[in-house]
Amino acid sequence: MGAARGVKWRSGGRPTRRRLFAADWAQRCPAGPVPPCADDETCPDVWELDNGDVAVIGRDLTAQYASRLPEGVRVGADERLVVIPGGLVRGPEVDPR
Fold first, then answer.
1. Please, where are the H alpha helices in 1-97?
2. Is the overall model pTM greater than 0.70, yes or no?
3. 17 φ, ψ (degrees, to nearest 5)
4. pLDDT digits (tens, 9 = 90+) for 1-35
5. How far apart are CA 3 and CA 13, in angstroms?
6. Where are the domains of the chain?
7. Which domain of life is it from (predicted)?
8. Which of 35, 92, 93, 94 is most buried by its number of CB atoms within 10 A?
């Protein structure tokens, strides 16, 4: 992904905190029906924000994966490793027949 539209980058390649939290919800990614939810309290989802960033709602599995990250992969102190069902990113499977 490229730089978010309208974001002023500081050294280190991250948006300033003020801009980071100023975005509003724009659209579900991929645009389509609401994903099936296990219950009323948990519902993984992916949304584009109006500044071009993407918000992910999923299970926080940072602690479970921290010792198994691929070489060169880091999770910063203010970041979380979030897992979502693969179908939310790939979209519905299409039967080529």
1. 17-20, 62-65, 86-90
2. no
3. -60, -40
4. 444 444 444 445 555 554 556 789 998 887 666 66
5. 9
6. 24-89
7. Bacteria
8. 35
Mean pLDDT, all residues of the chain = 76
d(CA 71, CA 54): 24
* AA identity, residue 15: P
pLDDT of residue 10: 44
| CA angle, 16 then 19 then 20, to 5° | 80
Does an H or E element contain 54, and which? strand 54-57
φ, ψ (nearest 5 deg) of residue 66 = -55, -40
Q: Which two tokens stand for residue 11?
A: 């050294």
* Tokens read off for 27: 């659209």
Q: Look at residue 55 and give its three-state secondary structure.
A: strand
